[in-house]
Design brief:
nucleus; 7 strands; DNA repair; single chain; three-stranded antiparallel beta sheet; Uracil-DNA_glycosylase-like; about 40% helix; alpha/beta; DNA N-glycosylase activity; SMUG1; disordered N terminus; globular
């Protein structure tokens, strides 16, 4: 059996046939297949499709001078007087939400009904931060309640400051406390003393307001049915505490906006509000000089010869150079 297999294996292998081809099989394998015609009777050629057109996305050409990143437009900051006025409006609304004692028959808001005069004062004299900020308490019946200007003695506002504006009526007006604007003939003694002093020292309002400004921490006035003025210090009960808290909150924001070098509290009540901010760590006493000068009201104790005392106070506390520069 083994011999038979060996005998069969000795037979020569048949030569590969090339019948029907004019070239060798190896030559066929090496030729590119795409060049050979397909003649097999079992092959059906696939239909040929036209090539699809090629589309290119055209990107916009950005000029090299235009930055490729977004730059928001520059919005100019509101002037200081406008920011303070917005703060005053918010403060007035917050104070009006506080329930008041029954003895308060009327609340006057000169920021609202004397807005033209008040804004004339702000726009003309609060063009920028000032080194010295005088803080008053609240409007007096014949001063700011008539003119919209702190310590707003009518002749001082009308004749010295040369301010003009329409003054309307408060929401509730007492017969004993009529609002007549610049036509009011009643004198505001505190305002007469206050602005009279700076008229003597400075000559023109421009000289005073070059480095100084006057602002009230409470813009509302409160009156008894008889017409008696009820100051924030004279209010009773929870209303007094709440009004102090609200005024303190807005005073902190106002001082940040005013950013003065010297803060002068006019009277002890205002000084107590500033001290409360210091006690609550809301105001750094090293950031600005804090002081208190006597209030010009004739109702204040030991307040005779106020003009002479105030003049000397300004010298002793380093404020006088700001009034004469």
């Amino acid at each position: 059996m083994l011999r038979k297999k060996l005998k069969l294996s000795d037979q020569p292998e048949p030569e590969p046939t090339t019948a029907g081809f004019d070239y060798a099989p190896m030559e066929f394998a090496l030729r590119p297949q795409s060049l050979l015609p397909i003649t097999s009777p079992h092959f059906e050629p696939k239909p040929q499709f036209a090539p699809q057109p090629q589309y290119q996305l055209e990107l916009p050409v950005v000029p090299p001078a235009v930055p490729l990143y977004y730059q928001p437009p520059v919005v100019p900051a509101l002037p200081l007087w406008h920011r303070i006025y917005q703060l005053e409006l918010q403060l007035c609304e917050a104070l009006k939400q506080i329930p008041l004692p029954a003895e308060v028959a009327a609340t006057y808001d000169p920021i609202q009904y004397a807005a033209e005069l008040h804004l004339a004062y702000m726009q003309r004299f609060l063009d920028r931060p000032k080194a010295v900020l005088f803080l008053g308490m609240n409007p007096g019946p014949w001063g700011m309640c008539q003119t919209g200007v702190p310590f707003g003695h009518v002749p001082s506002v009308r004749d010295w400051m040369q301010l003009r504006g329409q003054v309307y009526k408060p929401v509730v007006e007492l017969d004993a406390r009529p609002v007549q604007g610049l036509a009011c003939t009643r004198g505001e003694q505190s305002g007469q003393r206050w602005w009279g002093l700076y008229e003597q020292l400075c000559g023109t309002p421009e000289n005073f307001f070059r480095n100084c400004f006057v602002w009230n921490i409470c813009p509302l006035a409160f009156f008894h049915a008889s017409g008696r003025n009820i100051t924030p210090a004279e209010l009773k009960g929870p209303a007094k505490t709440r009004i102090q808290q609200v005024c303190n909150e807005y005073l902190k924001t106002a001082l940040d906006l005013f950013n003065p070098t010297i803060v002068v509290s006019v009277g002890r009540y205002t000084e107590d509000r500033v001290k409360a901010l210091v006690k609550q760590n809301l105001l750094d006493p090293n950031r600005m000089q804090l002081s208190c000068m006597p209030h010009p009201s004739p109702r204040s104790l030991n307040n005779t010869n106020w003009l002479e005392k105030a003049r000397q106070w300004l010298v002793d506390h380093g404020v006088m150079p700001y009034l004469q520069s």
